[in-house]
Amino acid sequence: MGMLGKIFTWWNGASVGTDLFTSRHGEKIGTDAHGNAYYRHKKDPKRRWVIYEGANDASRTPPEWNAWLRGTIDELPEESMPARRRFQKDPTPNLTGTAEAYRPGGALGGPGQRAASTGDYEAWTPE
Q1: Contact criterion met (CB below 8 Å) for 31 and 37
Q2: C-alpha separations of 104 from 110, 111, 114, 116 in Å
Q3: Which helix (H) or strand (E) holds 38?
Q4: Contacts of 52 (CB under 8 A, 6+ apart)
Q5: Average pLDDT per run of 10 along the chain, which is 127 residues long?
Q6: pTM for this one?
Q7: Strands 48-51 vs 26-31: parallel, antiparallel or unpaired
């Protein structure tokens, strides 16, 4: 993203103001598998934030880092969370608005036809 994009947008990564604040007051704690960087305030460690790699979408934060961001756990996720079990699936981001979004049969843009009405509905008409 160009410099103008960083100055005037916030939805694709950190803005210039966020970068300045983070460089002055933030201490980098770690990164996740998606490349998101996690920080805490140097003077007040209860203040925590994330700088997303790519689009700013909270659903792209893994559950263990989400717990750390919200203060549910104080230690880093690698230290306090149990090992991932074989049956656990990887978290997926919110797919609404993308081509991979769920569209049930009969929905606009979805497969199939909408079911015919059953005749138990009578439209309201003003008198």
Answers
A1: yes
A2: 6, 7, 10, 15
A3: strand 37-41
A4: 13, 14, 36, 60
A5: 64 68 84 91 91 84 92 90 88 85 81 75 86
A6: 0.68
A7: unpaired
